[in-house]
Amino acid sequence: MNSITVEGLGKRFKDVEAVKDVSFAVAEGEIFGFLGPNGAGKTTTINMLCTLLRPTSGTATVNGYDVVRQRKEVRRSLGLIFQETTLDDYLTAEQNLLFHAYAYSVPKSVREPRMKELLTMLELWDRRKESVATYSGGMRRRLEIARGLLHHPKVLFLDEPTLGLDPQTRRHIWRYILDLRERENLTFFMTTHYMDEAEHCDRIAVIDQGRIVALDTPDNLKDALGGDVLSLRSENNEAAMLEIRERYDLQPQLEDGQVVFNVPRGEQFLPEFVRRFGQRLLSVGIRRPTLEDVFLKLTGHAIRDEEASPAEIMRRRWGGRR
Amino acid sequence: MQDVYRGIWVISYRELLRFSRQRSRVLGSFGMPLLLLVVFGAGFNRTIGNLTPGVDFLQFVYPGIITMTVLMSSLFAGLSIVWDREFGFLREVLVAPLSRSGVILGKAVGGGGVALAQGIVLLLLAPVVGIALGPMVILQVIPLLVLVSLTLSGLGILVATMMRSQQGFQVVMQLMIFPLMFLSGIFFPVNNVPAWLQIVSKVNPLTYGVDAIRQVMLGASAAASPLVDGAPLGVTVFGHTMSVLEDAVVLGVLAVALMTAAVWSFNRQE
Ligand SMILES: Nc1ncnc2c1ncn2[C@@H]1O[C@H](COP(=O)(O)OP(=O)(O)OP(=O)(O)O)[C@@H](O)[C@H]1O
Ligand SMILES: [Mg+2]
What we know:
The complex is a heterodimer.
Chain A: E1 2-12, E2 17-27, E3 31-35, H1 42-49, E4 57-62, E5 65-66, H2 71-77, E6 78-81, H3 93-103, H4 108-121, H5 137-149, E7 155-159, H6 167-184, E8 187-192, H7 195-198, E9 203-208, E10 211-216, H8 218-223, E11 228-234, H9 237-248, E12 253-255, E13 258-263, H10 266-276, E14 281-287, H11 291-299, H12 310-318
Parallel strand pairs in A: 3-8, 3-9, 6-7, 7-8
Antiparallel strand pairs in A: 1-2, 1-4, 4-5, 9-10, 11-13, 11-14, 12-13
Chain B: H1 2-21, H2 23-48, H3 57-86, H4 89-95, H5 100-124, H6 135-162, H7 166-182, H8 195-203, H9 205-218, H10 220-224, E1 236-237, E2 240-241, H11 244-269
Antiparallel strand pairs in B: 1-2
Helix pairs in contact in B: 1-5, 2-3, 3-5, 3-6, 3-7, 3-9, 5-6, 5-11, 6-9, 6-11, 9-11
Protein backbone atom coordinates (compact mmCIF):
# COMPACT_ATOMS: atom_id res chain seq x y z
CA MET A 1 0.00 0.00 0.00
CA ASN A 2 1.10 3.54 -0.62
CA SER A 3 1.50 5.88 2.33
CA ILE A 4 1.23 9.00 0.24
CA THR A 5 -0.32 9.49 -3.18
CA VAL A 6 -0.26 12.79 -4.98
CA GLU A 7 -2.07 13.50 -8.22
CA GLY A 8 -1.68 16.70 -10.21
CA LEU A 9 -1.19 18.74 -7.04
CA GLY A 10 -0.82 22.49 -7.47
CA LYS A 11 -0.78 25.60 -5.33
CA ARG A 12 -1.11 29.13 -6.56
CA PHE A 13 -0.60 32.08 -4.26
CA LYS A 14 -1.80 35.43 -5.52
CA ASP A 15 0.94 36.01 -8.05
CA VAL A 16 3.19 32.94 -7.60
CA GLU A 17 2.55 29.42 -8.77
CA ALA A 18 4.53 27.71 -6.02
CA VAL A 19 3.71 24.09 -6.94
CA LYS A 20 2.71 22.99 -10.42
CA ASP A 21 1.01 19.73 -11.33
CA VAL A 22 3.03 17.47 -9.04
CA SER A 23 2.33 13.72 -9.00
CA PHE A 24 4.07 10.89 -7.14
CA ALA A 25 3.47 8.05 -4.71
CA VAL A 26 5.44 7.03 -1.62
CA ALA A 27 5.38 3.38 -0.55
CA GLU A 28 5.06 2.29 3.06
CA GLY A 29 8.41 2.20 4.82
CA GLU A 30 10.13 4.27 2.19
CA ILE A 31 12.38 7.28 2.73
CA PHE A 32 11.29 9.71 0.08
CA GLY A 33 13.22 12.91 -0.48
CA PHE A 34 12.29 16.19 -2.06
CA LEU A 35 15.45 17.83 -3.35
CA GLY A 36 15.35 21.39 -4.57
CA PRO A 37 16.76 24.89 -4.15
CA ASN A 38 15.26 27.71 -2.06
CA GLY A 39 11.78 28.62 -3.18
CA ALA A 40 11.31 25.41 -5.19
CA GLY A 41 8.02 24.66 -3.47
CA LYS A 42 9.13 22.00 -0.97
CA THR A 43 7.53 23.53 2.11
CA THR A 44 4.40 24.42 0.19
CA THR A 45 4.01 20.77 -0.85
CA ILE A 46 4.50 19.56 2.73
CA ASN A 47 1.97 22.10 4.00
CA MET A 48 -0.61 20.82 1.55
CA LEU A 49 0.03 17.19 2.50
CA CYS A 50 -0.23 18.07 6.20
CA THR A 51 -3.51 19.99 5.71
CA LEU A 52 -2.03 23.36 6.60
CA LEU A 53 -2.65 24.69 3.10
CA ARG A 54 -5.50 23.94 0.75
CA PRO A 55 -4.35 22.86 -2.73
CA THR A 56 -5.62 24.96 -5.60
CA SER A 57 -5.61 21.94 -7.90
CA GLY A 58 -5.17 18.17 -7.77
CA THR A 59 -5.67 15.64 -4.99
CA ALA A 60 -3.52 13.93 -2.39
CA THR A 61 -3.96 11.24 0.24
CA VAL A 62 -1.90 10.45 3.31
CA ASN A 63 -2.37 7.01 4.86
CA GLY A 64 -5.40 6.64 2.62
CA TYR A 65 -7.10 9.82 3.86
CA ASP A 66 -7.87 12.73 1.57
CA VAL A 67 -5.96 15.85 2.65
CA VAL A 68 -8.90 18.16 1.92
CA ARG A 69 -11.93 16.11 2.94
CA GLN A 70 -10.47 14.09 5.84
CA ARG A 71 -8.23 16.59 7.52
CA LYS A 72 -8.73 15.30 11.06
CA GLU A 73 -7.77 11.75 10.12
CA VAL A 74 -4.77 12.97 8.13
CA ARG A 75 -3.54 15.03 11.06
CA ARG A 76 -3.91 12.20 13.51
CA SER A 77 -1.91 9.83 11.33
CA LEU A 78 1.13 11.96 10.57
CA GLY A 79 3.99 13.58 12.41
CA LEU A 80 5.54 16.80 11.17
CA ILE A 81 8.85 18.43 11.89
CA PHE A 82 8.75 21.97 10.61
CA GLN A 83 11.51 23.81 8.83
CA GLU A 84 11.46 26.54 11.44
CA THR A 85 11.52 25.83 15.15
CA THR A 86 8.10 25.43 16.77
CA LEU A 87 8.89 24.63 20.40
CA ASP A 88 7.56 26.61 23.35
CA ASP A 89 10.65 28.21 24.88
CA TYR A 90 8.94 28.96 28.15
CA LEU A 91 8.26 25.32 28.86
CA THR A 92 10.59 22.44 29.63
CA ALA A 93 11.24 19.67 27.11
CA GLU A 94 8.95 17.40 29.06
CA GLN A 95 6.14 19.97 29.13
CA ASN A 96 6.45 20.46 25.39
CA LEU A 97 6.00 16.72 24.90
CA LEU A 98 3.14 16.60 27.36
CA PHE A 99 1.29 19.31 25.49
CA HIS A 100 1.67 17.29 22.31
CA ALA A 101 0.44 14.11 24.00
CA TYR A 102 -2.67 15.89 25.29
CA ALA A 103 -3.35 17.49 21.93
CA TYR A 104 -3.21 14.08 20.22
CA SER A 105 -5.04 12.35 23.09
CA VAL A 106 -2.24 9.87 23.77
CA PRO A 107 -3.29 7.96 26.90
CA LYS A 108 -0.99 8.09 29.89
CA SER A 109 -0.21 4.35 29.74
CA VAL A 110 1.22 4.86 26.24
CA ARG A 111 2.66 8.29 26.84
CA GLU A 112 4.98 7.57 29.75
CA PRO A 113 6.95 4.68 28.18
CA ARG A 114 6.93 6.36 24.77
CA MET A 115 8.39 9.60 26.13
CA LYS A 116 11.08 7.69 27.93
CA GLU A 117 11.89 5.59 24.87
CA LEU A 118 12.15 8.56 22.51
CA LEU A 119 13.99 10.88 24.86
CA THR A 120 16.48 8.14 25.66
CA MET A 121 17.02 7.34 22.01
CA LEU A 122 17.51 10.99 21.11
CA GLU A 123 19.77 11.47 24.13
CA LEU A 124 17.67 14.09 25.88
CA TRP A 125 16.36 12.09 28.83
CA ASP A 126 18.74 13.64 31.34
CA ARG A 127 17.79 17.14 30.31
CA ARG A 128 14.05 16.71 29.99
CA LYS A 129 13.33 18.96 33.00
CA GLU A 130 15.23 21.89 31.54
CA SER A 131 13.65 24.85 29.84
CA VAL A 132 13.83 24.60 26.06
CA ALA A 133 15.27 28.12 25.95
CA THR A 134 18.57 26.63 27.17
CA TYR A 135 18.73 24.05 24.37
CA SER A 136 21.20 24.16 21.47
CA GLY A 137 20.02 24.01 17.85
CA GLY A 138 20.76 20.29 17.61
CA MET A 139 18.96 19.51 20.87
CA ARG A 140 15.91 21.45 19.74
CA ARG A 141 15.85 19.48 16.51
CA ARG A 142 16.07 16.20 18.38
CA LEU A 143 13.29 17.26 20.71
CA GLU A 144 11.13 18.15 17.74
CA ILE A 145 11.75 14.73 16.25
CA ALA A 146 10.77 13.11 19.55
CA ARG A 147 7.64 15.23 19.66
CA GLY A 148 6.72 14.40 16.08
CA LEU A 149 6.92 10.67 16.88
CA LEU A 150 5.19 10.74 20.26
CA HIS A 151 1.73 9.82 18.98
CA HIS A 152 2.97 6.88 16.87
CA PRO A 153 2.38 8.42 13.43
CA LYS A 154 2.68 6.20 10.38
CA VAL A 155 4.27 8.88 8.24
CA LEU A 156 6.82 11.40 9.41
CA PHE A 157 7.29 14.61 7.44
CA LEU A 158 10.59 16.40 7.94
CA ASP A 159 11.13 19.79 6.36
CA GLU A 160 14.89 20.36 6.09
CA PRO A 161 15.57 18.52 9.35
CA THR A 162 19.27 19.32 9.43
CA LEU A 163 19.27 22.93 8.27
CA GLY A 164 21.83 24.98 10.15
CA LEU A 165 23.28 22.06 12.11
CA ASP A 166 26.95 21.13 12.16
CA PRO A 167 28.07 18.05 10.17
CA GLN A 168 28.43 15.84 13.24
CA THR A 169 24.93 16.64 14.47
CA ARG A 170 23.60 16.10 10.98
CA ARG A 171 25.14 12.64 10.92
CA HIS A 172 23.56 11.86 14.28
CA ILE A 173 20.12 12.93 13.11
CA TRP A 174 20.48 10.67 10.12
CA ARG A 175 21.46 7.78 12.32
CA TYR A 176 18.23 8.25 14.30
CA ILE A 177 16.18 8.43 11.12
CA LEU A 178 17.64 5.23 9.68
CA ASP A 179 17.32 3.56 13.07
CA LEU A 180 13.67 4.55 13.34
CA ARG A 181 12.88 3.15 9.97
CA GLU A 182 14.16 -0.22 11.11
CA ARG A 183 12.29 -0.15 14.40
CA GLU A 184 8.91 1.27 13.50
CA ASN A 185 8.48 0.69 9.80
CA LEU A 186 7.87 4.42 9.45
CA THR A 187 7.48 6.17 6.14
CA PHE A 188 9.56 9.32 5.76
CA PHE A 189 8.89 12.27 3.55
CA MET A 190 11.68 14.78 3.78
CA THR A 191 12.92 17.84 2.01
CA THR A 192 16.50 18.91 1.78
CA HIS A 193 18.89 20.83 -0.32
CA TYR A 194 21.93 18.99 0.99
CA MET A 195 23.05 16.61 -1.74
CA ASP A 196 24.83 14.24 0.62
CA GLU A 197 21.61 13.79 2.57
CA ALA A 198 19.54 13.08 -0.47
CA GLU A 199 21.83 10.06 -0.98
CA HIS A 200 20.30 8.42 2.09
CA CYS A 201 16.84 8.46 0.54
CA ASP A 202 15.39 5.43 -1.19
CA ARG A 203 14.01 7.64 -3.91
CA ILE A 204 14.21 11.33 -4.57
CA ALA A 205 12.15 13.77 -6.53
CA VAL A 206 14.15 16.65 -7.91
CA ILE A 207 11.97 19.74 -7.74
CA ASP A 208 12.72 23.06 -9.35
CA GLN A 209 10.42 26.06 -9.64
CA GLY A 210 7.42 24.08 -8.45
CA ARG A 211 7.81 21.21 -10.88
CA ILE A 212 9.21 17.68 -10.44
CA VAL A 213 11.94 17.38 -13.06
CA ALA A 214 13.07 13.83 -12.18
CA LEU A 215 12.08 11.06 -9.80
CA ASP A 216 14.13 7.93 -9.18
CA THR A 217 16.61 6.25 -6.85
CA PRO A 218 19.80 8.25 -6.35
CA ASP A 219 21.81 5.61 -8.23
CA ASN A 220 19.49 5.55 -11.22
CA LEU A 221 19.48 9.32 -11.40
CA LYS A 222 23.25 9.37 -11.47
CA ASP A 223 23.48 6.54 -13.99
CA ALA A 224 21.07 8.35 -16.25
CA LEU A 225 23.70 11.04 -16.68
CA GLY A 226 25.68 8.66 -18.85
CA GLY A 227 28.41 7.33 -16.59
CA ASP A 228 31.37 8.93 -14.87
CA VAL A 229 32.30 12.59 -14.93
CA LEU A 230 35.56 13.32 -16.70
CA SER A 231 37.05 16.78 -16.38
CA LEU A 232 40.22 18.10 -17.97
CA ARG A 233 42.11 21.26 -18.63
CA SER A 234 44.19 21.69 -21.75
CA GLU A 235 46.17 24.55 -23.29
CA ASN A 236 43.35 25.11 -25.72
CA ASN A 237 39.99 24.16 -24.23
CA GLU A 238 38.03 25.13 -27.34
CA ALA A 239 40.04 22.80 -29.54
CA ALA A 240 39.80 20.06 -26.90
CA MET A 241 36.01 20.33 -26.88
CA LEU A 242 35.88 20.14 -30.64
CA GLU A 243 38.07 17.04 -30.67
CA ILE A 244 35.95 15.26 -28.01
CA ARG A 245 32.77 16.10 -29.84
CA GLU A 246 34.01 14.85 -33.20
CA ARG A 247 36.00 11.79 -32.23
CA TYR A 248 33.69 10.36 -29.50
CA ASP A 249 30.37 11.97 -30.30
CA LEU A 250 30.08 13.28 -26.70
CA GLN A 251 28.75 16.62 -25.43
CA PRO A 252 31.45 18.35 -23.38
CA GLN A 253 30.66 21.51 -21.40
CA LEU A 254 32.92 24.26 -20.15
CA GLU A 255 32.70 24.76 -16.37
CA ASP A 256 35.09 27.03 -14.47
CA GLY A 257 37.79 26.70 -17.13
CA GLN A 258 37.44 22.91 -17.22
CA VAL A 259 36.08 20.75 -19.98
CA VAL A 260 33.56 18.36 -18.43
CA PHE A 261 31.77 15.41 -19.99
CA ASN A 262 30.20 12.07 -19.07
CA VAL A 263 31.35 8.66 -20.24
CA PRO A 264 30.30 5.16 -19.17
CA ARG A 265 33.05 3.13 -17.42
CA GLY A 266 35.40 6.09 -17.23
CA GLU A 267 38.33 4.17 -15.73
CA GLN A 268 38.58 2.03 -18.89
CA PHE A 269 38.02 4.96 -21.20
CA LEU A 270 40.64 7.23 -19.68
CA PRO A 271 44.03 5.59 -20.60
CA GLU A 272 43.17 5.22 -24.27
CA PHE A 273 41.70 8.72 -24.34
CA VAL A 274 44.84 10.31 -22.90
CA ARG A 275 47.12 8.42 -25.31
CA ARG A 276 45.25 9.56 -28.38
CA PHE A 277 44.41 13.12 -27.31
CA GLY A 278 45.70 15.76 -29.73
CA GLN A 279 46.00 18.71 -27.30
CA ARG A 280 48.49 19.22 -24.51
CA LEU A 281 46.74 18.20 -21.25
CA LEU A 282 47.33 20.27 -18.10
CA SER A 283 45.21 18.13 -15.82
CA VAL A 284 42.67 15.36 -16.00
CA GLY A 285 40.31 13.96 -13.38
CA ILE A 286 37.60 11.36 -13.10
CA ARG A 287 34.87 10.91 -10.50
CA ARG A 288 31.52 9.27 -9.94
CA PRO A 289 28.69 11.68 -10.67
CA THR A 290 26.95 13.30 -7.69
CA LEU A 291 23.41 14.45 -7.29
CA GLU A 292 24.79 17.94 -7.75
CA ASP A 293 25.66 16.93 -11.33
CA VAL A 294 22.20 15.46 -11.74
CA PHE A 295 20.65 18.68 -10.60
CA LEU A 296 22.85 20.80 -12.81
CA LYS A 297 22.08 18.67 -15.82
CA LEU A 298 18.33 18.63 -15.21
CA THR A 299 17.79 22.28 -14.43
CA GLY A 300 20.73 24.03 -16.03
CA HIS A 301 21.73 25.69 -12.73
CA ALA A 302 23.45 24.65 -9.54
CA ILE A 303 21.20 23.92 -6.55
CA ARG A 304 22.89 26.62 -4.56
CA ASP A 305 24.58 29.31 -6.52
CA GLU A 306 26.31 30.31 -3.34
CA GLU A 307 26.52 28.80 0.10
CA ALA A 308 23.68 30.06 2.26
CA SER A 309 25.06 32.64 4.67
CA PRO A 310 24.61 31.99 8.39
CA ALA A 311 22.16 34.89 8.53
CA GLU A 312 20.12 33.32 5.76
CA ILE A 313 20.07 30.00 7.57
CA MET A 314 18.91 31.74 10.74
CA ARG A 315 16.12 33.44 8.86
CA ARG A 316 14.92 30.23 7.30
CA ARG A 317 15.17 28.17 10.42
CA TRP A 318 13.79 30.72 12.87
CA GLY A 319 11.23 32.36 10.67
CA GLY A 320 10.47 36.00 11.37
CA ARG A 321 12.02 35.85 14.81
CA ARG A 322 15.04 38.02 15.94
CA MET B 1 -17.30 18.25 19.64
CA GLN B 2 -14.68 16.24 21.49
CA ASP B 3 -11.99 18.04 19.52
CA VAL B 4 -13.43 21.37 20.67
CA TYR B 5 -13.32 20.42 24.36
CA ARG B 6 -9.84 18.97 24.03
CA GLY B 7 -8.75 22.14 22.21
CA ILE B 8 -10.12 24.32 25.00
CA TRP B 9 -8.48 22.47 27.81
CA VAL B 10 -5.13 21.76 26.15
CA ILE B 11 -4.69 25.35 25.04
CA SER B 12 -5.88 26.91 28.30
CA TYR B 13 -3.71 24.50 30.27
CA ARG B 14 -0.67 25.69 28.35
CA GLU B 15 -1.61 29.36 28.87
CA LEU B 16 -1.79 28.86 32.62
CA LEU B 17 1.41 26.80 32.68
CA ARG B 18 3.25 29.48 30.73
CA PHE B 19 1.93 32.19 32.98
CA SER B 20 3.06 30.38 36.10
CA ARG B 21 6.55 29.97 34.65
CA GLN B 22 7.00 33.66 33.88
CA ARG B 23 7.65 35.08 37.30
CA SER B 24 8.02 38.65 36.07
CA ARG B 25 4.60 38.52 34.48
CA VAL B 26 3.04 37.19 37.66
CA LEU B 27 4.60 39.92 39.78
CA GLY B 28 3.93 42.65 37.23
CA SER B 29 0.30 41.79 36.87
CA PHE B 30 -0.35 42.12 40.60
CA GLY B 31 2.02 45.01 41.16
CA MET B 32 0.41 47.54 38.85
CA PRO B 33 -3.14 47.44 40.25
CA LEU B 34 -1.83 47.38 43.81
CA LEU B 35 0.23 50.46 43.09
CA LEU B 36 -2.81 52.21 41.65
CA LEU B 37 -4.88 51.35 44.69
CA VAL B 38 -2.26 52.76 47.03
CA VAL B 39 -1.93 55.93 44.97
CA PHE B 40 -5.66 56.48 44.84
CA GLY B 41 -6.22 55.51 48.42
CA ALA B 42 -3.46 57.54 49.97
CA GLY B 43 -3.21 60.26 47.34
CA PHE B 44 -6.56 61.29 45.95
CA ASN B 45 -8.93 60.14 48.61
CA ARG B 46 -8.62 63.17 50.89
CA THR B 47 -8.56 65.71 48.10
CA ILE B 48 -11.60 64.43 46.26
CA GLY B 49 -13.93 63.67 49.15
CA ASN B 50 -17.25 61.83 48.89
CA LEU B 51 -18.89 61.55 45.47
CA THR B 52 -22.25 60.81 46.92
CA PRO B 53 -23.16 60.29 50.57
CA GLY B 54 -21.27 57.30 51.94
CA VAL B 55 -19.12 56.68 48.83
CA ASP B 56 -15.59 58.07 48.94
CA PHE B 57 -13.25 58.11 45.95
CA LEU B 58 -11.38 54.94 46.87
CA GLN B 59 -14.60 52.99 47.22
CA PHE B 60 -15.70 54.40 43.90
CA VAL B 61 -12.51 53.60 42.03
CA TYR B 62 -11.76 50.17 43.58
CA PRO B 63 -14.23 48.17 41.44
CA GLY B 64 -12.79 49.91 38.40
CA ILE B 65 -9.22 48.95 39.25
CA ILE B 66 -10.24 45.30 39.48
CA THR B 67 -11.97 45.53 36.11
CA MET B 68 -8.91 47.19 34.65
CA THR B 69 -6.70 44.32 35.79
CA VAL B 70 -9.02 41.90 34.07
CA LEU B 71 -8.89 44.07 30.95
CA MET B 72 -5.11 43.84 30.73
CA SER B 73 -4.92 40.08 31.23
CA SER B 74 -7.79 39.41 28.85
CA LEU B 75 -6.30 41.38 26.01
CA PHE B 76 -3.20 39.30 26.63
CA ALA B 77 -5.05 36.32 25.18
CA GLY B 78 -4.78 38.07 21.82
CA LEU B 79 -1.11 38.90 22.27
CA SER B 80 -0.45 35.26 23.05
CA ILE B 81 -1.83 34.23 19.64
CA VAL B 82 0.36 36.77 17.87
CA TRP B 83 3.37 35.48 19.82
CA ASP B 84 2.62 31.90 19.00
CA ARG B 85 2.42 32.77 15.36
CA GLU B 86 5.68 34.69 15.46
CA PHE B 87 7.58 32.08 17.48
CA GLY B 88 6.28 29.24 15.35
CA PHE B 89 4.37 27.38 18.04
CA LEU B 90 1.05 28.16 16.39
CA ARG B 91 1.95 25.75 13.59
CA GLU B 92 2.39 22.90 16.07
CA VAL B 93 -1.12 23.75 17.31
CA LEU B 94 -2.61 24.02 13.84
CA VAL B 95 -1.30 20.70 12.60
CA ALA B 96 -2.58 18.89 15.70
CA PRO B 97 -6.02 17.27 15.54
CA LEU B 98 -7.64 20.09 17.53
CA SER B 99 -10.59 22.10 16.37
CA ARG B 100 -9.84 25.70 15.41
CA SER B 101 -12.75 26.95 17.51
CA GLY B 102 -11.41 25.01 20.48
CA VAL B 103 -8.03 26.69 20.07
CA ILE B 104 -9.60 30.15 20.15
CA LEU B 105 -11.88 29.38 23.07
CA GLY B 106 -8.93 27.81 24.87
CA LYS B 107 -6.97 31.04 24.52
CA ALA B 108 -9.92 32.96 25.95
CA VAL B 109 -10.38 30.53 28.83
CA GLY B 110 -6.64 30.58 29.57
CA GLY B 111 -6.52 34.38 29.51
CA GLY B 112 -9.73 34.46 31.54
CA GLY B 113 -8.29 32.11 34.13
CA VAL B 114 -5.26 34.31 34.62
CA ALA B 115 -7.48 37.40 34.75
CA LEU B 116 -9.78 35.84 37.28
CA ALA B 117 -6.94 34.78 39.53
CA GLN B 118 -5.69 38.36 39.56
CA GLY B 119 -9.17 39.72 40.20
CA ILE B 120 -9.62 37.37 43.15
CA VAL B 121 -6.28 38.31 44.67
CA LEU B 122 -7.32 41.98 44.50
CA LEU B 123 -10.69 41.17 46.03
CA LEU B 124 -8.98 39.43 48.91
CA LEU B 125 -6.74 42.45 49.41
CA ALA B 126 -9.75 44.75 49.80
CA PRO B 127 -9.55 44.93 53.60
CA VAL B 128 -5.91 46.03 53.35
CA VAL B 129 -6.91 49.23 51.53
CA GLY B 130 -9.83 49.72 53.88
CA ILE B 131 -12.75 48.32 51.90
CA ALA B 132 -15.05 45.79 53.51
CA LEU B 133 -16.44 43.09 51.21
CA GLY B 134 -18.68 40.26 52.33
CA PRO B 135 -18.39 36.75 50.90
CA MET B 136 -21.71 37.21 49.10
CA VAL B 137 -20.35 40.23 47.25
CA ILE B 138 -17.26 38.31 46.19
CA LEU B 139 -19.40 35.43 44.91
CA GLN B 140 -21.44 37.85 42.81
CA VAL B 141 -18.43 39.71 41.47
CA ILE B 142 -16.68 36.58 40.17
CA PRO B 143 -19.18 35.73 37.41
CA LEU B 144 -19.16 39.37 36.37
CA LEU B 145 -15.37 39.29 36.08
CA VAL B 146 -15.67 36.18 33.93
CA LEU B 147 -18.07 37.99 31.61
CA VAL B 148 -15.85 41.05 31.33
CA SER B 149 -12.89 38.80 30.65
CA LEU B 150 -14.64 36.84 27.90
CA THR B 151 -15.79 40.04 26.19
CA LEU B 152 -12.34 41.55 26.18
CA SER B 153 -10.57 38.29 25.26
CA GLY B 154 -12.90 38.12 22.31
CA LEU B 155 -11.90 41.63 21.33
CA GLY B 156 -8.17 40.95 21.79
CA ILE B 157 -8.29 37.68 19.86
CA LEU B 158 -10.32 39.22 17.06
CA VAL B 159 -7.68 41.92 16.61
CA ALA B 160 -4.92 39.31 16.87
CA THR B 161 -6.33 37.18 14.06
CA MET B 162 -6.10 40.19 11.79
CA MET B 163 -2.53 41.17 12.74
CA ARG B 164 0.57 39.58 11.27
CA SER B 165 3.21 41.08 13.53
CA GLN B 166 3.63 41.63 17.21
CA GLN B 167 4.50 45.28 16.66
CA GLY B 168 1.30 45.84 14.71
CA PHE B 169 -0.75 44.19 17.41
CA GLN B 170 0.86 46.21 20.15
CA VAL B 171 0.28 49.49 18.36
CA VAL B 172 -3.40 48.69 17.88
CA MET B 173 -3.68 47.58 21.50
CA GLN B 174 -2.08 50.76 22.80
CA LEU B 175 -4.57 52.73 20.72
CA MET B 176 -7.43 50.70 22.19
CA ILE B 177 -6.41 50.23 25.82
CA PHE B 178 -6.30 53.88 26.81
CA PRO B 179 -9.73 54.88 25.52
CA LEU B 180 -11.18 51.63 26.87
CA MET B 181 -9.66 52.33 30.27
CA PHE B 182 -10.15 56.05 30.67
CA LEU B 183 -13.56 56.32 29.05
CA SER B 184 -15.20 53.53 31.00
CA GLY B 185 -16.28 55.14 34.23
CA ILE B 186 -13.34 53.67 36.13
CA PHE B 187 -12.10 57.10 37.17
CA PHE B 188 -15.22 59.26 36.93
CA PRO B 189 -18.98 58.75 36.91
CA VAL B 190 -20.01 58.67 33.25
CA ASN B 191 -23.20 60.63 33.90
CA ASN B 192 -21.19 63.56 35.18
CA VAL B 193 -19.21 64.53 32.05
CA PRO B 194 -19.88 66.55 28.87
CA ALA B 195 -22.39 65.03 26.48
CA TRP B 196 -19.88 63.86 23.82
CA LEU B 197 -17.83 62.07 26.44
CA GLN B 198 -20.97 60.43 27.79
CA ILE B 199 -21.75 59.03 24.38
CA VAL B 200 -18.23 57.66 23.90
CA SER B 201 -18.25 56.12 27.35
CA LYS B 202 -21.60 54.47 26.88
CA VAL B 203 -20.54 52.59 23.75
CA ASN B 204 -17.51 51.28 25.61
CA PRO B 205 -18.26 47.71 26.73
CA LEU B 206 -16.00 48.06 29.75
CA THR B 207 -18.35 50.74 31.15
CA TYR B 208 -21.01 48.10 31.79
CA GLY B 209 -18.54 45.77 33.45
CA VAL B 210 -17.33 48.51 35.76
CA ASP B 211 -20.89 49.60 36.51
CA ALA B 212 -22.14 46.10 37.33
CA ILE B 213 -19.25 45.34 39.66
CA ARG B 214 -19.54 48.74 41.31
CA GLN B 215 -23.25 48.26 41.94
CA VAL B 216 -22.62 44.87 43.52
CA MET B 217 -19.95 46.34 45.78
CA LEU B 218 -21.62 49.61 46.73
CA GLY B 219 -25.19 48.35 46.60
CA ALA B 220 -27.86 49.29 44.07
CA SER B 221 -29.04 52.24 46.16
CA ALA B 222 -25.66 53.89 45.90
CA ALA B 223 -25.79 53.60 42.11
CA ALA B 224 -29.15 55.33 42.01
CA SER B 225 -28.22 58.00 44.53
CA PRO B 226 -27.62 61.35 42.93
CA LEU B 227 -24.29 63.03 42.38
CA VAL B 228 -23.81 66.68 43.28
CA ASP B 229 -25.63 67.92 40.19
CA GLY B 230 -28.47 65.45 40.36
CA ALA B 231 -27.57 62.71 37.82
CA PRO B 232 -27.28 59.22 39.29
CA LEU B 233 -23.85 57.68 40.01
CA GLY B 234 -24.61 54.65 37.83
CA VAL B 235 -24.88 54.45 34.04
CA THR B 236 -27.96 55.96 32.44
CA VAL B 237 -28.85 54.93 28.90
CA PHE B 238 -31.78 56.71 27.24
CA GLY B 239 -32.95 57.94 30.61
CA HIS B 240 -32.86 54.47 32.15
CA THR B 241 -30.39 53.60 34.89
CA MET B 242 -28.86 50.18 34.21
CA SER B 243 -29.26 47.39 36.74
CA VAL B 244 -26.62 44.72 37.36
CA LEU B 245 -28.58 42.20 35.36
CA GLU B 246 -28.98 44.54 32.41
CA ASP B 247 -25.25 45.30 32.46
CA ALA B 248 -24.55 41.57 32.47
CA VAL B 249 -26.83 40.99 29.49
CA VAL B 250 -25.04 43.71 27.50
CA LEU B 251 -21.70 42.08 28.32
CA GLY B 252 -22.97 38.60 27.55
CA VAL B 253 -24.29 39.56 24.14
CA LEU B 254 -21.03 41.32 23.33
CA ALA B 255 -18.96 38.37 24.54
CA VAL B 256 -20.82 35.94 22.30
CA ALA B 257 -20.64 38.29 19.31
CA LEU B 258 -16.92 39.03 19.70
CA MET B 259 -16.00 35.39 20.32
CA THR B 260 -17.96 34.28 17.28
CA ALA B 261 -16.27 36.91 15.16
CA ALA B 262 -12.86 35.85 16.51
CA VAL B 263 -13.46 32.17 15.74
CA TRP B 264 -14.72 33.02 12.29
CA SER B 265 -11.78 35.28 11.52
CA PHE B 266 -9.27 32.72 12.79
CA ASN B 267 -10.84 29.93 10.74
CA ARG B 268 -10.70 32.07 7.67
CA GLN B 269 -7.06 33.09 8.08
CA GLU B 270 -5.28 29.92 9.15
N1 LIG C 1 1.98 32.24 1.93
C1 LIG C 1 2.57 32.54 0.76
N2 LIG C 1 2.14 33.57 0.01
C2 LIG C 1 2.72 33.86 -1.16
N3 LIG C 1 3.76 33.19 -1.68
C3 LIG C 1 4.26 32.16 -0.99
C4 LIG C 1 3.69 31.77 0.27
N4 LIG C 1 4.38 30.70 0.75
C5 LIG C 1 5.33 30.44 -0.18
N5 LIG C 1 5.26 31.30 -1.21
C6 LIG C 1 6.12 31.30 -2.41
O1 LIG C 1 6.06 30.01 -2.99
C7 LIG C 1 7.34 29.61 -3.46
C8 LIG C 1 7.73 28.29 -2.84
O2 LIG C 1 7.99 28.47 -1.48
P1 LIG C 1 8.38 27.28 -0.50
O3 LIG C 1 8.46 27.82 0.87
O4 LIG C 1 7.48 26.14 -0.73
O5 LIG C 1 9.84 26.91 -1.01
P2 LIG C 1 10.89 25.88 -0.37
O6 LIG C 1 11.23 24.92 -1.45
O7 LIG C 1 10.39 25.32 0.88
O8 LIG C 1 12.13 26.82 -0.12
P3 LIG C 1 13.18 26.86 1.09
O9 LIG C 1 14.26 25.92 0.75
O10 LIG C 1 13.65 28.28 1.08
O11 LIG C 1 12.44 26.52 2.34
C9 LIG C 1 8.27 30.76 -3.15
O12 LIG C 1 8.40 31.55 -4.31
C10 LIG C 1 7.57 31.53 -2.07
O13 LIG C 1 7.90 32.90 -2.14
MG1 LIG D 1 11.00 25.35 2.81
